[in-house]
What does this fold into?
Amino acid sequence: MLSELIYVSRRNINCTDKDVEQILQASIRQNKKKDLTGVLLYSQTQFIQVLEGDGKTILGLYDHIKKDRRHKNVLLISLRLIEKRYFPSWQMGSKKIDQDYEFLTPLNAQEKEIFKQLITGKESHKATDILHKIFSTKNTTS
Ligand SMILES: Cc1cc2nc3c(=O)[nH]c(=O)nc-3n(C[C@H](O)[C@H](O)[C@H](O)COP(=O)(O)O)c2cc1C
It folds into this structure.
């Protein structure tokens, strides 16, 4: 059944931008084969990932990702059934964010607050809407 999983994690100090580039390339390749879509938001210290697709497939991948040494403190934010994909055209969209979480996308104060809570591991039913909004602006790669 179509599901969505969101987690946050701490990027390891020795995980370079080149490493992130490799993660993204591998993800795009492999997610396509598994009919998975989603996005990866990253800063110098953190990752937030949304994975969409078959529930079992997502959980299998999540188990695998959790063991990846390029990050740690992997924390599940939400796992739920969805009716349609938020990111149907992205095998793995990506966006780099700065430490102040300033986005090109104008987030209002409430949305910024929800995003800050999300990044510290608090679940929010509005999380995907905000991530979707962030990814709807132009400087996104997929
Ligand atoms: C933050 C983060 C996100 C990742 N996202 C994915 C992903 O969406 N899909 C994927 O196949 N691998 C992803 N990976 C990489 C996997 O952990 C793993 O390295 C990759 O699937 C290759 O595994 P293999 O060498 O056992 O084939 C991610 C890794 C990290 C650290």
